[in-house]
Amino acid sequence: MPRRTRPALLLAATLLLALTGCAGFTMVPPGPTATKGMQLTPGTAWNRFNNPRHPSHLDVWTQNGPILDMLVVLGGLEDGRALLNLETDDGGTPLPVFRSTMTATDIQSLFETTVARVRRARTVDLFGLRPAPFVGEDGFRFEFAYLGADEVDRRGIAVGAVRQGRLYMIAFEGTGLLHYPRGLPEAERIIAGARIAGS
Amino acid sequence: MSGPTRRRLLAGCGCCMVASSFGCAPPERPLIPGERPTTATDEGGLWAIMDREEARLARSPLRVNDPGLERYISGIACTVGGAYCRDVRVYVVRNASFNASMAPNGMLQVWTGLLLRTENEAQLAAVIGHELGHFVARHSLTRMRTARTVGDIAAFIALGTAGAGVQGGPQAVQAIAISALFAYSRDQEREADTFGLAAMRQAGYAESEAAAVWAGMAAEERAEPARDRGVPFLATHPGAEEREQTLRTLAASAAGTGRMGEDTHQAALAPLMPTMLADEVRLRRPERSLSVFQRLLARQPNEPGLNAATGEVYRLRAALGDDERALAAFRIAAAAPRPPATAWRGIGLVEQRRGQRAEAAAAFRRYLATTPEPPDAAMIRSYLVEGT
To answer: Structurally, how many domains does chain A consist of?
Structure first.
């Protein structure tokens, strides 16, 4: 039923090359590190995934590569901005944006839609949304699971808080079978020790 | 080249109409029911590749395991397919986009996004009939045979078997590329339309419903604000209006009787509806979702799931006047004997946003009391505490 022509294929192939050609990895050693307005203290070394397409408020770390696990650090997102600025799969409707007046329920919904559209998740399940402290504020946390087009089961946690109208969040995700359960203790340590710089 | 020879060549080259560097191959003779090509041929090779894909799809976590639904759709495929009944195998796939496709080996995929958008059995029969048209006429084989170089053929095969993708951009490539595998020429689409309508007629379905499917898609695309429309060649279904017109014209001579099968359709889809509605709402393309939901609500205005989903769309869009629209929709859903969980929750969230603490608390309590194990119970309880 869908119809495509060759020019579309060529353009898409060019986009693919552009996307994969630029990203690199740098080491984040264990110990205190400043990133995106936050102070984090990883207990083990991580790889920072430098993707020029990531927005300025995002820092992405990984142990085994982003396909297998990711620690997404979101620091100081302002009112009116989306969580990510990547192209959505339909290239059309813009992603919903963060508002300072949002409740935890709203922010979880924002996260859910972002995962669905940007990660092309076919199924997204959310669990256990509850109040939880984060960066010294009254924040929230929840667990999630999703299936992308690659059909791999991924699990994750997200913890966040709004401070002075800006959103701070850390989400850790990994393959349900191995990388999530294995990486979770270190992710929880990072989350528990996270502070906003200068606070 | 002499006149008649050139005309014959052009007649056989319907595929040349497509703007591509592919060459041309004459159309194939129709498949015989029960036919299976020998593996030594290029067609046999294509089938073998598709068989492998089908084995993967059969155990995919994205396959919807609803035997009742699969039986229902298989039943339609058999009714519409006639002698080809046993050559078709139906797979329902969890994907919120509007799509159905039939692989050259008889594997029929119907995506949940398409199921959601069909209002009755006749509309689903139209889609299946159309796909059967491609299958019987072996259009994919013709497309493959038009590939001029070894590289083209390799790309054709590779795209059809593209398995796991990686994140981000490459998946867009994959999605487009896989669609290119089954990209048919204008003539092939028309042939499939004609076949589909004839099959519907023979099976006793209302032929007018074929155009109705595309009328719905056209309305949905028009509903999307111009600023949000994507790049044209990335649009899911270019020419929805054109498809609607073609099918309306082709069905114009139809008797006008023929069954719709609304009740059987709603009953068969009912178990999967909450999931399909949630998948659609999650995408946050409110104008498109509202277009679909309003079309479905026209036939069942008090259906609780549809009303709750409509409420969610308004609640999440939060444009001027949306709070009132959301509450109105949620209230219809909440009045049902077994309201969907999102109904009372939605009322609570909207009232909370409006600062109506008492109303919000009452709604949250109803939500907690009537929903088994709500996944956000702890947060909703904290809202209750906050509100006091």
So the answer is: 1
